[in-house]
Each structure stands twice: as C-alpha cells, then as structure tokens.
Amino acid sequence: MEEKNIMTYETVSLDDENSQLVIIDQTRLPYETKMLYLKTQKEIWTAIYLLQVRGAPAIGVAAAIGIYLAAKEIKADNYDDFYKAFKEAKDYLASARPTAVNLFWALDRMEKVVLDNADKSVEEIVKLLHDEAVAIKEEDIWVCKSIGEYGLSLVEPGIGILTHCNAGQLATAKYGTALAPIHLGQERGYNFKVFADETRPLLQGARLTAYELHSAGVDVTLICDNMASIVMKNGWVQAVFVGCDRVAANGDAANKIGTSGVAILAKHYGIPFYVCAPTSTIDMECATGDDIHIEQRPAEEVTEMWYKERMAPKGVKVYNPAFDVTDHDLITAIITEYGIAKPPYSESLKEIFAKKEAAKKNK
Ligand SMILES: CSC[C@H]1O[C@H](OP(=O)(O)O)[C@H](O)[C@@H]1O
C-alpha cells in the first residue's frame, strides 16, 4: 500500500452525522491508512486496548467521545437511571488501559458534566456531554501547540533531537507533545535533525514517529533502541524530547518502556532531557512514580509480532511492561501548556496548576 501524508489526517474525531468515533487504525500504519468508524462501546474499548488509537491525549479524546456516544444511547427517563447507566459505561471504558491518566481525566471530566447538571433533563445533559467532548478535543490542539512553543524556546535551530516512542500528532488531536516543538520548528525553518528510537516491541517510533516526521519533511533518522547511546556519544544529539502517560506530583514520569534508559544515557552524556506533559497528564494525586500502575501487555507482542516466524522458543517466559518511570532527578524540565517546570517539581508543578486556575478565572 502506498504511504500518504499522515499529517493531513485527523487522529481522532466525532462524526456527529453518523454518531460514531472516527480514528486512524494506528496498528496498520505506516503501510495502510485505514480509518475505523466505531459506534459501540466494545469497539471503542477494543480500539484503545489494541492501540488502534493510542497516546495519552488521543486516548482521552477518544474516551470523551466514546462516553458521549454511550450516553446518547442510554434509554432512561429520569436522572438516577441515566446516571447509573452512564457510570457503568464510564467504568467499562476506564478498564481499557491503566497507565495513561488522560483516559481517567477525560472520563472524570465528562462525569462532572452529569453530576453538575442533575437538575436538567437527560436530553439537555447529553447535549452538554457532546459539547464537553468537542471541547476536550479542541483544547488538546491548543495545549499541544502551547507545549510546542515552550519547547521551541529551549532549543536552537539545526540541533540534533532524540525522541522515544510516538508523542506526535498521532498521539494527540494535533501537533503532538514531544513532537510539537519539532512540527512547529519545521513550519519555521528550524531544520532539526531528529533521531527516532524504533521503540520495541510495538515500534511506535519506527511506524509512527518516523512516518509522521518523514511526511512533514523533517530530517529524521530511525535507530534501534540500542543505538541511542552511540548517537549521543557521537555528539549528534543536543536535546531529548519525550512524551508521558502519567507524571507524579514529584515529577517522576511514566512513559513508554525504554524512556528511563534514554534519560540515564542523556544524564551520562550531559544532554538535556525534556518531558512534554499536558497538565491533563500530570496526576497530582499520585505522590511518586512508585504509585503509577504500569500496564503489562501480552507476550506475543515480544515473541511474535513483526517476525515471519516466532523469534523466541515456545513457552519461554516474557516480561512486557508497556511503560517505565523516569525518576524526576533525571528530568531537566517538564514542559506544559502553562509553562516550563524546573526542579523541584513538587513545587513547580503546583505553580503550573496555579497558573492554569488563574487562566481559567480570567477567561
Ligand atoms: C503524547 S502521549 C504519548 C505517549 O503514549 C505512548 O504510549 P502508547 O503508545 O502505549 O499509547 C507513549 O508512552 C508516548 O510517549
């Protein structure tokens, strides 16, 4: 199948006319650009679990649209029956994946719409849920662009940047988080030289980041995960940008498996390591990285996927954590849409949320 300019596609959207969630099937990229039209809760749950839609912000947007579509189908003529059915649908979607906090952040935000409008009719509440799901998506575009601007303020044109996994447009509503500075920089002639870790076992770096950046005309070089050290040692990397799935109140950050190793390498080579984190991905209820639930995924993702034949002996034990936690003391700065947090994160993240509250009040 011919590759297209994936940057021209919407990662996740609501088709109002047909009451369906529309996503790119990211398990088929880069060889096939297949759109999925999802109506049922099972289809949406499965799309999140299988990473057909993936990336913390994109999962949040998909869940917000998904729970709206569920609410639209609830047959209830009173609030209590409606809320009971809503809660069941919310708990079901919340069970799809445990680590990315945006899934829960978005579902909680949608539930707040229901709780805050108990005096309204079911029909009015469903309309408010529609508007909230659309707002969550639109806000994500602004959040990513803002992270891109703050990220650009930290780097010079022409530098080498390494990134891990995919925290790009395919992980968000647009621009991405870790790739937002790169996409914005491309629009402004920054000419970054990007090294994309392939990111085993699901190859989000090879299949998605390299594809996104190549489509956008960015100078991108694909490397195996075990090559990050040599490109840093060669002096080809001046900054690392990664995304995140859950940041704890002390700045410990959960991200795709392998990220903590990249952070240790960056520290060793004296390279700044930046985590790009929407405030929707910062969990101030989570004290440290030790409190973050790390998703374990099927062994077959390690032993079978991408190979013509199984690449390991039948029955061998496999450990397949989808994420790891980078200790806060390995992180140079956490870039949010309300500014750049520097250590000590236990204080600076509070300041970021204070800025967010102030901005809301001034709206
Ligand atoms: C902008 S969040 C992207 C974040 O999510 C990815 O995980 P997955 O592909 O399993 O959804 C990865 O950790 C990225 O950094």
UniProtKB/TrEMBL annotation:
Pathway: Amino-acid biosynthesis; L-methionine biosynthesis via salvage pathway; L-methionine from S-methyl-5-thio-alpha-D-ribose 1-phosphate: step 1/6
Role played: Catalyzes the interconversion of methylthioribose-1-phosphate (MTR-1-P) into methylthioribulose-1-phosphate (MTRu-1-P).
Annotated HAMAP family: Salvage_MtnA (MF_01678)
GO BP term, pick one: L-methionine salvage from methylthioadenosine
InterPro entries assigned: IF-2B-related, IF-M1Pi, IF_2B-like_C, Initiation_fac_2B_a/b/d, M1Pi_N, NagB/RpiA_transferase-like
Protein name, entry field: Methylthioribose-1-phosphate isomerase
Site feature Transition state stabilizer, where: 165
